[in-house]
Amino acid sequence: MSIAWVENFLWGSLLIVRVFAVALVLTVAWGMLGASAKLSKHWLLQRLAAAYTSVFRGTPELLVVLILYFGSAVTLTWLTKMVNPAVKFVDIPPFWAGALAISLIVGAYATETFRGALQGIDAGQTEAARALGLSGWQIFAHVKLPQMWRLALPGLGNHMSSIIKDTALLSVIGVEEITYTAEMATALTGKPFSMYMIVAGIYLCFTSLVVFSVARLETRANRYLVKSQ
Amino acid sequence: MSFDLMLIAASLPKITTGVVLTLKLLGVSLLFGTALGIGAALMRISGSRLLAWPSFAYSYVFRGTPMLVQLFIIYYGLSQFEGLRNSMLWPILREPFWCAVIALSLNEGAYAAEILRAAIRGVDQGLHEAGRALGLSPRQRFMHVTAPIAVRLALPAYGNEMIGLLKGTALVSMIAMNDITGVARTIVAKTFAPYEIFISAAIVYLSITWVIQHGIRAAERHFNRYIKQ
Question: For the whole model, what pTM was predicted?
Fold first, then answer.
């Protein structure tokens, strides 16, 4: 019996790590943009951010992935056909469409986390910084960011777990991650339970790693705080 | 490329049948999931390690793995065991509907357990002591003091969890069930009009989300009616 599928689980796991890395960066970007928009004084920005969070938190993840991938494919194909009618099908690579979809979904949750963290910083801090003559950007980078990081960490940990778990959906648009590997391996081995248990095991390792790392980071981020009784 | 409104109108009856299945899955899984969650939360706070540990492991594993993988393990995986295939349980485990209900309920139970545990912990210790001073038995204290307050504390998080469960039901389209997402995918495969169909499906989900949110808010108002704002 061939055991080539063992190697495929390895490649599939690597792919999860790559999707995770791309999606995490984008998630933080959407989250910060969303949180800034929600806290801004401009009503249009507030409305846009509110629409963003309610749409992406209320629509199933699977549907978002499908809309982004197939929607962009239809649009791109249509645009390309105007230039070159011989073209049959153009799409965004599933890897990027998937990472983008996941980041938009989790970014909607991160928006709320970051907003809460920004609001959680004592207003006196900003006033003190302003009194010291720091510019708006300096206040953000040197006063707000280091402090919101501490407050946002627990929530961000949950969002990181969500990103990892959402990668399982990407087999539906043809990303060859480990759920896809398990399907292929089942055809070879005839053991679906064992194959999908391997998948679950790999995911559990990843999410445990996130939980563990975030706990370490939290201890580090809070190291200057005096413990309350 | 255009946005075909006629297609949406023509697809509405089919999508409606999908709504019925989605709501059925949501209702049944919410019922079983909540029961599981109450059981698991009580085990966690029981004070006995023998009970607390399995409950912790259950929550950890189901929250740490993608629901899609859990669904595949139950739907595709269990057929690997011949003993099970010949057992009395097979007529149930063969059905996609019941496999979906089992996966959704187990998942919901794992999250509900955490929410309920946190809520029970959040009840002021002084109330407990007051109950003891009044001569209430531990059972009476739990039923008449702790539980009603815990329900109130758990409600907001529970509402979010219900929306999470609604979004989770979309995964059953991956085991060929015709819920809202399943119907939408079938229509898109035929017409290749992803925008019209998937966005209509998303609007249906958002409407259900809206109803859940407002229902929970009404329940919160009801439970908080004696609390001064």
Answer: 0.90
